[in-house]
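Submission sheet (multi-component)
Chains listed below:
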Amino acid sequence: MSKQVKMGILGLLLVIPSFLLLFVIVVIPIFISFKESLTNKSGGYDLSNYMYLFTDKLMRSNIIFSLKVTLISVILVLIVSYALAVYMRFNNGVVVRWIRGTYMIPIFIPSVIATYGLIQLLGNHGWISRILLLAHVESMPRIIFDMKGIIIANLWFNIPFTTMLLGSAMSAVPDSIIESAKDVGASGLRIFFRFLLPLSYKTLLVAVTFVFMGVMGSFTAPFLIGPNAPQMLGVSMEQVFSVFQDRNLASAMAVFTFLLCSVMGYFYIQSMIKDENVRPQ
Amino acid sequence: MFRKKTAITLMSTFAIAAGVLSGCGSNNAPANSASSNSAAPAKPTEITLYVTSSQNVKDYWDSIIPKFEQQTPDVKVNLVFTASGTGSQPTYDRIAAAKQANKSSGEIDIYEDNLSYVTRGQKDGLWETLSTDKIPNLSKVDSATMKDIANMAVPYRSSAVVLAYNSDKVKTPPANLDELYAWIKANPQRFAYNDPSTGGSGNSFVTTTLYKTLPADAIHSSDPSIEKQWDQGFATLKDLGKYVYGNGIYPKKNQGTLDLLASEEVDMIPAWSDMVLDQVAKGQLPNSTKVAQINPGFNGGPSFLMVNQLSTKKDAIYKFLNYVLSPEAQTVVVNQLHGFPGIQISNMPQEVQDSFKGAASGFRSFNIGDLDKEVNKRWQSEVAAQ
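Outcome: structure written.
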């Protein structure tokens, strides 16, 4: 046996455990759901569940609502996280030390507790409205049981990790580049769009993928603080599955959600592969 | 080369998968034989209790089971708790599927749920018939109740959906549905009921409205032809949407509306009597909170414990059920769970008898079976999404 074959076998052995895990907990369930989603009421196979998913008024509004929440969340998370990461990269002092020490806290708070915390804080009779009342502000926009509440919860859940990702990308940008750009008179914004953004583009893509999938698949926060209708896909899926007990429709929703997320995954993997090929051998 | 690699990958995948799967199989075998042998005195018999309810009921079992195990060292009770609204159907399906597949009890020995599951299991032949010579304390239960359910289950606690209201704001509570609707319209945004698919109190408000003009015995029928007569009720609910909390916000779960009552965002809600009384006692709801039943009443009735006919551990189960019906355990139902006791009230200590004068009456037992699913479905598309 040549050395190359031996190495090949070793490589395979190393890959097999993770592949198997992936196969059993991801690939097989996807196929089962896909098959379920094509099963109609009378046991035959057709596209009736998907037809219902895209033609029913309620379902369609759920899909649009989920996409809207996800899109807004992704954009807001990126803006805030970039601002934090850039600020931490180029400044020093007490404020930066405070941000560094505290921005990870949301990761360590269980999501149910954080969600109830948000309800207590932002609810109609919550802390904020009580404080505002002291300042004679009588009415507050409805945040809990509304899309705004879900988006705020998503910011809370996603900003820490995204900031961490972007922060590491920022620290990989050499000082010399920034300094030489400054020397020839580039403004702060220009440095950001011409250097920082392109240099952290790959991490940005990773962050977008993670936030998109996280928000799309979220359940706890939208269940507890979302409106009754339209619902996020995760909440609606749970309701269709365990309350209406329409397993086939729930599967169709799951497959659709999976497709949405895999589109994001596709772009992400594409750019990774491109990057691998560009690298000098 | 590439093909060879793929072939090797696939083959090893199958080999390992087969190994893993057969490993699972052989692990199961000794576990099964162990449980059937466990009647031996050295090791306590383990019985599994499945409960579908709210947190307060879980707290109740968490305090009852250790007391029982202390008194009866040869029986150990495993509690499996599933959240209200979603847990019952899958558990029932599991028992039924295990019977159909001849796989004995499906590891579920005792199952707790409401009347509809007692009657369904009776039809499907899933429950064991219980008698006083096996469970002496069963004689303390009202014999009429036991006759209704053909001795198929043990009613161990009761509760009912009531109107919970803030008595500082509401002096005289509505006495019937029409007065309630009038109150809701006269006090916009001060009434809330929860999403009916997430808890029984909102569900009961919805069902009571749907069956308002229907014949009295319709609430015991699961005949799908009744569905057509719901239209008027759904129209009412849709119309009420403009007047309820947040112009059409229905919080999730039974606790969701109680939270609104506690923060004084609303003044009246339908709620489970035991949850209200419990939370008033703990100070989570203000002392001004009072309860009232309307006429005809909301849904209510006992919760039952059913014994899986195919369980192999009947002796241990009967010991446990006998303890649950003892005045000692029933006092915990009253004091901790704030439910109505399952045994006749004359068996209870005098102070318990006094505290329930007039409170535990007026509710109706709805038993509409699978139609409940349709209620939730239509509510979601016609009322929530208006």
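Remark: Residues 62 and 230 of chain A are 5 Å apart (CA to CA).
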